[in-house]
């Protein structure tokens, strides 16, 4: 329990402290230090969960499903902080952000980490909602950090769309609470997920059905499901790059996590009705549409960060589809995909940040010849894209292969759509990336100071996961699969 | 069971809820900003009154607190902040012409009918009251959403956003006798922070496009032109 409390307390203290640190230099280091400590306590928490299966109390509950996401969140938080320190100093030195803006940036970075960790570990659906909404509030000022008209527009769109989406999710939460009050002896426990899960079969299926539609649209907005995805490319392309890395790597995962937790409740409630797989079917539909539409949109992008944010939508769609498919194989694949996508995508955004600094623009047409100007950045971008497009031997291949196998087993005719979508997305990525990496660099293009350590660590891990999944992690994922799908895979 | 057979308390609550819905329509078609803010404040006060009614009927202590919280937050603090922002942005005399006022009202009516249609499946006899109140709150939420779509002025959009929250509070308090206190405080905190951030954004938007007409925020589109 103390590990959990520390994991949540550290970012809170960090957020408060960093609001008062005026020196950009020190703020960067302090941000990094807190991220290191958070990862340490998150690992400690993981070890405790491995020993005790479940840690619960004080409205919090950590089991196999969320513990690996907690560790992942803390890990990506740390590597992004490593990247963010010199990157944001560079940005600040170019006078794109004021020192006051830097204070907001660092403080909100930690606040964002706090909301992510609270959303993952809480056992209370209301607190989950508050945390996910808090994540919007923490990041919205960061999206407009550069104060360009585009950035302000992106931030306003992000604020309004996510605010509306999340309001609908609250309506769904209220309906769930209403359904719970009809069956629970102690109505005040009506938002506690573990209690609801235990009584899921008794919840009124009609109310839960309506509630799930609202919850899916609400949290689905945050996942970036088409057609509620409009905010995502804007927010990713206009905000500072470390923010794009954590938004893509963490926020989308956490929103999907919320959807899956709620699906578990609805599945329990609808099991005895004539539409037992309604929630799964909805997820499959939304997921597949997002996957296909985002794959097509990849082709017509002009902004490098925008392009990779569409790639995020595509992968989130794939995971949503897989969770909707259900069954141990698809669920295991989706959990693994959450992990490898998060690692790969944040590595790509870090690389893209450096690439944009080299070229002095985010426009794909004007980024050229990275591999000649700065081989480390060029190779990282190339390998990152190879990994995210699902080529072996990287981990994304492993998870996509599992998902495809599961699809062929249960819904064979959908595997054609899946394969087609993967091919379209792969082509979309490479037609843009190839000239950026190999083209002729413009006159006078200079390498920049870049710390490629986070990228190498992330890609190394993704490679490792593609070759062999460590037994500890496989055990975690398998137990999570057991929780979600009802039966184990391994 | 017809509405007249419900206990007086529930009829009274339904009356208040109906007034909340009525104010939503008022907000939607009110073109003067200050008048719209006042309508919003009255809506907040009505939600607080609903909460108080439920609290008195159920002798529930934490609802007294949440009635107070709603009154302070929704009927006083947020309207006051909006008022101040409008004055600082010199928008007191701002009026906005809706492009299709009749159409927007008709859509709002359709949304109310849609809300009732959504909750029809909750058929259990003893739930007549709940069904009505859930439908009314859903309608308030959806009309808030419509306001976000129909209005181009940033302050009016924020009013729409906040009236969506009002609808949610109404649902929470009347259908379920209030959310747990932790959640209620968290939601109230989020709403307050959102309001502060909206204030910051009004100035950022004005600095970037010289107006608060968010329709002019149209640089980011999918059909990329790349004029540079």
From TrEMBL, chain A:
The keyword Transmembrane helix applies. It is a multi-pass membrane protein. The chain crosses the membrane at residues 65-83, 104-121, 127-146, 158-180, 200-220, 241-260, 280-298, 318-340, 376-398, 410-430, 451-473. It comes from the Bacteria. Keywords: Cell membrane, Membrane, Oxidoreductase, Transmembrane, Transmembrane helix. InterPro entries: ComplexI-like_HydComp (IPR052175), NADH_UbQ_OxRdtase (IPR003918), ND/Mrp_TM (IPR001750). It is found in: Cell membrane; Membrane. Its main location: membrane. Residues 123-418 form the NADH:quinone oxidoreductase/Mrp antiporter transmembrane domain. PANTHER family: HYDROGENASE-4 COMPONENT F (PTHR42682). NCBIfam families: PRK06458.1-3 (NF005043), PRK06458.1-5 (NF005045). This is Hydrogenase 4 subunit F. It comes from Marichromatium bheemlicum. The lineage of its organism: Bacteria, Pseudomonadati, Pseudomonadota, Gammaproteobacteria, Chromatiales.
Automatic annotation (TrEMBL), chain B:
Keywords: Cell membrane, Membrane, Transmembrane, Transmembrane helix. Its main location: membrane. It comes from the Bacteria. The chain crosses the membrane at residues 12-28, 35-57, 63-82, 103-123, 129-149, 185-203. It is found in: Cell membrane. The keyword Iron does not apply. It is a multi-pass membrane protein. The keyword Transport does not apply. This is Formate hydrogenlyase.
């Amino acid at each position: 329990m103390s590990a959990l409390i520390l994991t949540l307390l550290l970012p809170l203290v960090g957020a408060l402290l960093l609001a008062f640190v005026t020196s950009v230099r020190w703020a960067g280091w302090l941000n990094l230090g807190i991220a290191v400590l958070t990862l340490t306590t998150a690992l400690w928490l993981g070890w405790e969960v491995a020993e005790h299966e479940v840690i619960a109390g004080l409205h919090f509950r950590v089991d196999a499903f969320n513990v690996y996401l907690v560790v992942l969140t803390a890990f990506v938080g740390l590597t992004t902080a490593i990247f963010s320190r010199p990157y944001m100093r560079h940005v600040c030195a170019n006078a794109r952000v004021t020192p006051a803006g830097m204070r907001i940036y660092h403080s909100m970075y930690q606040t964002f980490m706090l909301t992510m960790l609270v959303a993952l570990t809480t056992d209370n659906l209301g607190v989950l909602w508050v945390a996910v909404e808090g994540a919007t509030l923490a990041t919205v000022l960061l999206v407009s950090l550069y104060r360009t008209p585009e950035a302000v527009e992106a931030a306003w769109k992000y604020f309004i769309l996510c605010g509306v989406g999340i309001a609908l999710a609250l309506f769904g939460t209220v309906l769930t609470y209403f359904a719970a009050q009809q069956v629970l002896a102690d109505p005040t426990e009506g938002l506690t997920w573990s209690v609801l899960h235990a009584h899921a079969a008794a919840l009124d299926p009609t109310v839960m059905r309506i509630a799930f539609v609202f919850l899916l649209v609400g949290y689905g907005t945050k996942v970036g499901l088409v057609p509620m995805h409009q905010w995502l490319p804007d927010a990713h392309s206009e905000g500072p790059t470390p923010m794009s890395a954590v938004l893509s790597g963490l926020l989308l995962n956490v929103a999907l996590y919320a959807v899956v937790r709620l699906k578990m409740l609805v599945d329990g409630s609808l099991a005895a009705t004539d539409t037992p797989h309604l929630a799964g079917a909805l997820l499959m539909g939304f997921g597949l549409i997002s996957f296909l539409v985002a794959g097509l949109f990849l082709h017509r992008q002009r902004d490098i960060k925008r392009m990779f944010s569409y790639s995020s939508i595509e992968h989130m769609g794939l995971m949503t589809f897989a969770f909707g498919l259900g069954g141990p194989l698809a669920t295991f694949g989706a959990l693994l995909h959450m992990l490898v996508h998060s690692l790969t995508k944040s590595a790509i955004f870090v690389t893209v940040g450096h690439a944009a600094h080299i070229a002095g623009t985010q426009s794909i047409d004007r980024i050229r010849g990275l591999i000649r100007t700065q081989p480390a950045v060029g190779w990282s971008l190339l390998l990152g894209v190879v990994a995210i497009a699902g080529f072996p031997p990287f981990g994304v291949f492993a998870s996509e292969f599992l998902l495809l196998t599961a699809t062929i087993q249960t819904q064979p005719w959908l595997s054609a759509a899946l394969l087609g979508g993967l091919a379209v997305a792969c082509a979309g990525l490479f037609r843009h990336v190839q000239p950026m990496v190999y083209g002729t660099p413009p006159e006078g293009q200079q390498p920049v100071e870049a710390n490629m350590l986070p990228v190498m660590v992330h890609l190394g891990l993704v490679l490792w996961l593609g070759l062999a999944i460590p037994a500890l992690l496989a055990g975690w994922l398998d137990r999570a699969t057991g929780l979600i799908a009802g039966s184990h895979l391994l | 069971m017809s509405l007249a057979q419900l206990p007086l308390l529930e009829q009274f609550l339904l009356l208040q809820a109906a007034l909340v819905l009525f104010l939503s329509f008022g907000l939607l078609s009110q073109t003067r900003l200050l008048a719209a803010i006042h309508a919003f404040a009255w809506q907040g006060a009505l939600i607080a009154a609903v909460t108080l009614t439920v609290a008195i009927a159920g002798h529930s202590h934490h609802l007294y607190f949440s009635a107070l919280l709603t009154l302070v937050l929704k009927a006083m603090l947020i309207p006051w902040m909006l008022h101040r922002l409008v004055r600082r942005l010199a928008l007191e005399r701002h009026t906005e012409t809706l492009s299709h006022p009749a159409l927007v009202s008709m859509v709002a009516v359709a949304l109310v009918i849609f809300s009732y249609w959504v909750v029809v499946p909750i058929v259990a006899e003893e739930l007549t009251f709940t069904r009505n109140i859930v439908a009314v709150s859903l309608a308030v939420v959806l009309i808030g959403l419509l306001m976000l779509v129909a209005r181009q002025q940033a302050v009016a959009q924020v009013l729409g956003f906040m009236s969506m929250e009002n609808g949610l509070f109404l649902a929470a308090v009347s259908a379920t006798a209030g959310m747990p206190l932790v959640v209620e405080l968290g939601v109230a905190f989020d709403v307050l922070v959102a309001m502060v951030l909206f204030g910051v954004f009004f100035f950022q938007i004005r600095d970037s496009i010289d107006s608060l007409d968010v329709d002019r925020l149209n640089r980011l589109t999918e059909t990329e032109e790349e004029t540079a």
